[in-house]
Amino acid sequence: MQLVTRGNGTGGEDVSHAIGTIAGLPRELATDASFEVRGEVRLTAEQFERANAIRAEHGAGPFSNPRNGAAGTLRAKGRPYTVEMSFWAFGAVELDGGTALAGAGHAEVMARVAAAGIRTAADTPAGLTVVDTIAGVQEQVDRIAALRARLPFGIDGVVVKVDALAEQAAAGTGSRHPHWATAYKLPVLPQL
Question: Comparing C-alpha atoms, which of 1, 54, 48 is closest to residue 25?
């Protein structure tokens, strides 16, 4: 298994040394398959508080926010302490002509990733829901926005994706993002 950051979109930094410190990302898969998982390593609110307490015990300053804390922790080597982080997959692609993820839609692919032992976005309170109408999409965006403050991590939006893999392929991908997915940004939450 190898863990690599997104980097510039074509190449990233190898951070495989962090394997074993990330909840939701096992050291070994529950299946004999070869695929690339795409997701996000984060500090939940609870992990962020615990990380800052651990850092204080070791004379280090607190992280300014969970996003920067996760990025710095992911790259850190040789610290005398470990900070647990969390991973949620939001996509996956086959490698080397594999068929472990073969399916008709994104939700099915993510279910296979979960069956391999990797935590996916479906395993959050927001979940992964397939709907058939624009009205259904709006209902889900509204539902997620309503539970936003109760999520274990901060979000600034909801990603809406076409589920059918054939339709994703037909829509294509631009130089900066796929044409079959869009980020719906939520209003900024007031500071408490």
Answer: 1
